[in-house]
Amino acid sequence: MPARFFILLCGTLAIAAGAKTFGEDAATDPAVDASSGRGKFRTVAMEWLNRSGQRPVTYFGLTVDPAVHQAPIDRPLVILIHGYNSCPERMAELATAVRQAGYPCGTLRYPNDQPIADSAKLLSGELHRLASDEAGRKIALVTHSMGGLVAREVVENAALDPGNVSQLLMIAPPSHGTSCAYLACRADVLEHRTDPQSHNLLDCLYSSIEDGLGEARHDLKPNSSFLEQLNHHSRNPNVRYTVFLGTGTVFSEEQLAQARRILEKCAQADSFVATVEPALQRALSDFEDAVEEGDGVVSVNRGRLEGVPDTVLLGFNHWNALGEPNCESVAALHREILKRLASQPKVERAAPTP
């Protein structure tokens, strides 16, 4: 068997294993159980792993520039919200651009693998605190990927809305999910292995569990119960929405078709591959959003949001959108974000219902 066939097979097997895990989880993971059983396990596991009390506990919440109190009150505080399996540090380039434009800036760190609804409650509490500490200052939320869903749940859910958000600018939001969520293998230990504070496997495991148990990936699947509930909300009339969608996907339908042909040849040459071929073909089908017009993770069709006419298509992809603005598509994204922040729309608060 040619080496490239073997490499593709190994990769596809890994993908299928991840998809199978997700399928098993989904079958036994009703929303109620996810918040109770998994939550209890997470607490017990963290307590056991940190029974010595020597492992640092990650701070989850808002971190705001110390000079925010000195900024003119008519300047919005820009809060950056990262996405799935990400962190505030990955939004550093955008934060630099925002600060250089003269805006006070802050970031939200949250357990990015936990249920999105739980992350929204964390953000809501932090924004309510800001409404008290910075009375009269408007908040502009700039989000990437899943962060847009976290923010929308806050501003579109009357029980969570703090009332001080005037703008929501979403980069690559999976408004209607992404088929890539079926392939989002548990890579948390590897994610935290790169953290300089993680010195050994137990530290990595603790950080991984602290970050959530992967519930967010279920929320990201198309037609998930979370997305069904979220998309029944109306847009908040007191918030100006913008959606930025990328068209710089690095995959093509021909590449996917070639992978299918290679798999078929492998199945003809090996009886074991022939046995598992149907499962592997199903795994490849989960790449549909990666090869449609989009950014390689979120297709344009699934990123659009009803009631948001300010939807801008640019040439970035899902990975370089947060990188250095050394290519025109990312530089254009920065310009469009700063242009909307500078517009300072005068949003009239809706009159309270008598």
Poorly predicted sequence stretches spanning 5 or more consecutive residues: 1-34, 186-190, 347-354
- What's the CATH superfamily, by name? Alpha/Beta hydrolase fold, catalytic domain
Number of helices: 14
Radius of gyration: 21 Å
CATH architecture: 3-Layer(aba) Sandwich
List the strand order in the largest sheet. Answer: 1-3-2-4-5-6-7
Beta-strand residue fraction? 5-15%
Overview of the molecule:
- This protein is α/β, with parallel strands linked by helices and 354 residues long.
- It has a single domain, classed as Rossmann fold (3-Layer(aba) Sandwich).
- The chain has helices at 3-27, 31-49, 92-100, 116-133, 147-156, 188-193, 201-210, 215-219, 225-230, 253-269, 271-285, 288-291, 300-303, 328-343; strands at residues 61-64, 77-81, 105-109, 139-144, 165-171, 240-246, 311-314.
- Mean pLDDT is 80; it is low at 1-34, 186-190 and 347-354.
